[in-house]
Amino acid sequence: MSVTVRVPAKVNVQLAVGAARPDGFHDLANVFLAVGLFDEVTVTPAAELRITCEGPGAAQVPLDGTNLAARAAVALAERYGRTPDVHIHIAKDIPVAGGMAGGSADGAGALLACDALWGTGASHVELLDICAELGSDVPFSLVGGAALGIGRGEKLTVLETGGTFHWVFAMAERGLSTPAVFREFDRLVADSDVPVPVASPELLDALAKGDPDALAASVSNDLQPAALSLFPALADTLDAGRAAGALTALVSGSGPTTAFLARDAEAARQVARALSASGTCRAVRVTAGPVQGARLL
Ligand SMILES: C[C@](O)(CO)[C@H](O)COP(=O)(O)OP(=O)(O)OC[C@H]1O[C@@H](n2ccc(N)nc2=O)[C@H](O)[C@@H]1O
Ligand SMILES: Nc1ncnc2c1ncn2[C@@H]1O[C@H](COP(=O)(O)OP(=O)(O)OP(=O)(O)O)[C@@H](O)[C@H]1O
């Protein structure tokens, strides 16, 4: 018997970053939106824990105990006093090291799949606790939709949204390391007072109304200067999307995937065509959000 879970990618429509904390993490006001790019995680009983992965970028995904899906299975098994004897197969569509929480999606997916396979009866709150131990983005991968994350991004408040937003994502030729981008942020702000991160009322209002123009006017990403500093060519991709009529263009999370908001599905296809022709990215995807979080298929 196998269990399969489908888990979405995310884009951060606001990523306000505070000063580095003593533990090395940064306090955030992190407004997540789940979008329709998905990984599928399948777990099957096996003699011992084993991971396989297929799809774009699969060669970059670790197949040992460091994989977030493996860590999720081990964490749940430890809590329920059993062995994590499963084969975890990841069908990857979320870009690897792309700033769209691909590894976090696999962690949340494996957790939900193992929970269903083993019938642990864990509560939603317990699963969220395990997610938060695995990584800052993992709780949101479980929940999906739209949410504000505070603390390191793991303390979530669900947000209502008044409509669907249409997005284009441009995948880059290489990945960026999330810790390296936060380190570059620290370097760039070293001589300034970093304000306490707060969610933008205009942005929350735009999400609640489902208004793409208002959302475009209020998106922000404090990690964008750091991502551009480490990967200057991303500025060309952002410019190409803006020139093609995107309402706004920004780096997704820690990058290097770039995100373009469009007024409707047709406008999104037009931006995607122009980005593909621009030669400034590896691949282009059109999708929409919010979509629901990790769910059993
Ligand atoms: C950039 C974002 O993707 C935005 O959603 C997240 O903040 C990163 O989330 P994540 O990949 O789940 O990150 P984690 O696995 O928790 O942490 C990886 C590394 O990112 C840095 N990190 C992450 C989250 C945070 N609030 N402050 C940080 O400084 C730390 O160097 C940490 O060692
Ligand atoms: N299941 C997984 N899928 C992809 N990468 C994983 C996985 N588990 C661990 N990793 C490691 O995590 C690194 C970051 O991968 P990931 O795709 O999660 O980045 P990301 O999307 O930029 O993350 P985030 O947006 O949460 O910061 C990879 O380079 C890889 O070494």
Automatic annotation (TrEMBL):
Residues 67-145 form the GHMP kinase N-terminal domain. The keyword Transferase applies. The active site is at K10, D137. Pfam families: GHMP_kinases_C, GHMP_kinases_N. GO terms for biological process: isopentenyl diphosphate biosynthetic process, methylerythritol 4-phosphate pathway; terpenoid biosynthetic process. ATP binds at P95, V96, A97, G98, G99, M100, A101, G102, G103, S104, A105. SUPFAM superfamilies: GHMP Kinase, C-terminal domain (SSF55060), Ribosomal protein S5 domain 2-like (SSF54211). It catalyses: 4-CDP-2-C-methyl-D-erythritol + ATP = 4-CDP-2-C-methyl-D-erythritol 2-phosphate + ADP + H(+). Pathway: Isoprenoid biosynthesis; isopentenyl diphosphate biosynthesis via DXP pathway; isopentenyl diphosphate from 1-deoxy-D-xylulose 5-phosphate: step 3/6. Residues 204-279 form the GHMP kinase C-terminal domain. Keywords: ATP-binding, Isoprene biosynthesis, Kinase, Nucleotide-binding, Transferase. GO terms for molecular function: 4-(cytidine 5'-diphospho)-2-C-methyl-D-erythritol kinase activity; ATP binding. InterPro entries: GHMP_kinase_C_dom, GHMP_kinase_C_sf, GHMP_kinase_N_dom, IspE, Ribosomal_Su5_D2-typ_SF, Ribsml_uS5_D2-typ_fold_subgr. Belongs to the GHMP kinase family. IspE subfamily. Catalyzes the phosphorylation of the position 2 hydroxy group of 4-diphosphocytidyl-2C-methyl-D-erythritol. This is 4-diphosphocytidyl-2-C-methyl-D-erythritol kinase. It comes from Streptomyces lacrimifluminis. The lineage of its organism: Bacteria, Bacillati, Actinomycetota, Actinomycetes, Kitasatosporales. The gene is ispE.
